[in-house]
Amino acid sequence: MSMTITQKIIAAHAGVNAVKPGELLSVRVDLVLANDVTAPVSINELRKAGLSGVFDKDKIALVLDHFTPNKDIKSAANSKYVREFACENCITHFYEGGEAGVEHALLPEKGLAAPGEIIIGADSHTCTYGALGAFSTGMGSTDIAYATVTGKTWLKVPEAVKVTLKGKRLPRFVTGKDVMLTLIKILSVDGALYKSLEFSGDIAALSVDDRFTVANMAIECGAKNAVFPTDKITLAYLNGRRVARGFTVYEPDDDAVYAREITIDLKSLEPIVAFPHLPDNGKTFSEFGNVKIDQVVIGSCTNGRISDMRQAAEILKDRKVAKGVRAIIIPATPEVYKQCLSEGLMQIFADAGCIISAPTCGPCLGGHMGILAAGERAVSTTNRNFVGRMGDPASEVYLASPYVAAASAVTGKISHPSELLK
Amino acid sequence: MNKVFKYGDNVDTDVIIPARYLTASDDATLKAHCMEDIDADFSKTVSAGDFIVGGQNFGCGSSREHAPLAIKASGITAVIAKSFARIFFRNSINIGLPLIENVQLADGISAGDALTVDFENGLVKNLTTGKTYDIPPAPLFLKKIIAAGGLLNTIDKNKG
Asked: Which among A36, A217, A354, B47 has the fewest CB atoms less than 10 Å away?
């Protein structure tokens, strides 16, 4: 039939045998997600249209994670509005307070994403779940309102860009973040517009956490989704999360058609930093000199998982954050937070002089917990470095891995981790 | 006479409506801060019937529907660009903000030009240069959503 993984998932959910790129179809969805920024707009739209009820109370996730713990009166009112909706409709997967985490780190932990599923969310980084072989993509509040009531959405079948990874393992200090910032640099910020990214080759070189980071940033090259084939590593993760429901694993056809093919030689990769003000503006360390910084953020749906925390701690152990630098550590979920405690990472962060935050999206989108003033620079493990993203329009965000961010916190300038550690 | 606000490539939703205003979703607040981080004068000078013209990948970034809502609340007739980011594209259709994707048209308009749009016949005329451009027709599937006045209005019909 010549279909990619994404095309097969869409065909199955549209109830047809085959689909072609460009076709517009109505599909059923397996999970619908919204947060404290986007859900209020969805709920408003539903009320305005006189619609009530939800298609399946077990297949809707509402996560209060963006401006929480609520930063001001308006955000508290928005959270309350979502809470009341969740309560009225008996939404099973409503997460707030000490149960909430950054949505795209939290839902896979809760076993809410599996291969072959269609997951849509009113958040652009919903593409994260492609790491587990799902088709997942971000939409807006009205799309999510529609899916909340009907359990369906409309999709245009995307063409695909095939990304083949070559190499048994990542070099020292190279992470999923570096793989993806390199790919985005190759593709540019609209190089995969309307398309799916389909990974293949030596995917075993990437851990599940690395794959989450890679799929998470698919939107930063315009992609509709990114998807990894399902392998032993995926299945081990799902078993650990007790994902007991049946799911279907799809593989691409041998004669699947790709709009473009890219090969990435993993052993040639090095740590890379995306300079302001676009994620495709990646530079390796030989391409820039001294860049002094004021703040470091380690967290987010991109890099707030346990392996990210371990990488940061590896650098920060027995070291101090440079005078004048604010280093903010944000474990993405309560589970990551607890694991940091039990592994002794919190002690390392506290001893180094870091600020440790509760799970929140917070500073990534300039919400709270670390806003930048005019002229200030941050190295951040988050996903966007647009003008004004983390605060004043005259501030700057440099995107990097947890290794680079932690090393930069110690030296006070953007630093290669090998400056501190062999 | 309507005005054109012209911007470059990759106008992202963080500059269309910065996250610090996302606790609101009412027209007045969104309009007051629309485009603030790249064009501080936009909200003061925009008037009903004006156009925004962008380059490639207009509306990239966050899925915030507040972005097309802010542009619509500002009274913009249509956003014209070489290409649109896909979530922004969906959101605009869903809320009824007209988008026109046409490279020649976007290139052929300068800030300050006067335009007329004829959606019925799919034509844009640049009154300043005298040139006329075709608007690519929307697929039937999307026309139905637009004709219904937005995605949610299609729900009852689907039940029948």
From this structure: B47
